[in-house]
Design a protein that fits this description.
The chain has about 300 residues and is an all-alpha fold.
Length: about 300
């Protein structure tokens, strides 16, 4: 009997090793897919425009021009890029914080309260996840025009506050993270619903809130189509629209003051704040998730 089992165990071990190797290759392929463009962006930002077209993309140029490129980016057209970057930071932080708070409150309400129409409203929120942002851009522009919000920061911030995927995440998280007995204890002590939410619920929902905050921040930071439709004043552009504007200038005018190295370096600078935000917030995210798993 033992002799008959050994070949089967050997085949299982071989299949397991093959499956592990295949999974490893797939994971490294995914890592390369996401990391290599960033590596190319970093290397390209250290080159002059001439070196961009005459040297290997992932290799160094004939001279290290990163600092010169950064100075050129922030000096272009009286420092308009710095204004675009500040606009993006303001739009994204405001929209992300508001979206995270609204999503947290809505998810908490759907998870812990039974009220007329709650299932229908939650189904509507789930359905909204399937609607692409491009399909909503024109209706949002029409509504913003009707309320006189076009060509203002509100035209970019207000639509970003509605985050259906954030509501779904917080609804699922609140259902598991907050015991009903804890809420009942707060009500017995005479606390109102808002006091219970902000004093008890919000602390327990912090990991989920950080998750929604990160998603909302990335979505607002990378938003391009809606600001393109809503904003006409160049001084109010976010960095995504501003870089596209510079690229359009370069394509339309052969003697334009801007060059490829300026646009690429501006793209690198626009990515750095997102990386810093993720590096800073992920520790709260991971700590909260680990604590919830131990419980």
């Amino acid at each position: 009997m033992p002799l008959a089992r050994r070949p089967k165990q050997g085949r299982k071990s071989t299949n397991h090793k093959r499956g592990t190797a295949l999974l490893t290759v797939l994971l490294w392929t995914c890592v390369a897919y996401f990391v290599l463009p960033l590596v190319w962006l970093v290397m390209a930002s250290t080159k002059t425009t001439a070196d961009l077209f005459s040297t290997f993309g992932f290799g160094p140029g004939t001279e290290f021009a990163l600092w010169d490129n950064i100075v050129e980016v922030f000096n272009y057209d009286g420092g308009i890029f710095g204004r675009w970057l500040l606009n993006t930071i303001g739009y994204s932080l405001t929209a992300a914080c508001a979206a995270a708070l609204v999503s947290t409150m809505a998810g908490y309400a759907f998870a812990k309260f039974q009220f007329p129409g709650s299932k229908i409203l939650f189904s509507v929120a789930l359905g909204a996840i399937m609607i692409p942002a491009t399909a909503l851009a024109v209706p949002q522009f029409v509504l913003a025009s009707a309320f006189g919000l076009t060509n203002s920061p509100f035209a970019v911030i207000v639509p970003a506050i509605a985050n259906p995927i954030g509501v779904f995440i917080m609804r699922v998280y609140a259902a598991e993270a907050i015991p009903d007995s804890l809420l009942e204890a707060g009500r017995v002590d005479g606390a109102g619903e808002f006091r219970i939410f902000f004093g008890i619920g919000l602390r327990l929902l912090a990991p989920g809130l950080v998750t929604v905050l990160l998603f909302s921040l990335v979505g607002a930071w990378n938003n391009y189509l809606l600001p393109l439709l809503m904003i006409r004043d160049q001084a109010l552009y976010p960095v995504t629209v501003g870089l596209a504007y510079l690229n359009g200038q370069l394509a339309a005018q052969s003697g334009a003051a801007v060059n490829f190295s300026t646009i690429i370096t501006g793209s690198l600078i626009s990515v750095i704040p997102l990386l810093i935000a993720f590096a800073y917030l992920q520790r709260y995210w991971q700590t909260g998730l680990t604590t919830g798993a131990v419980k």
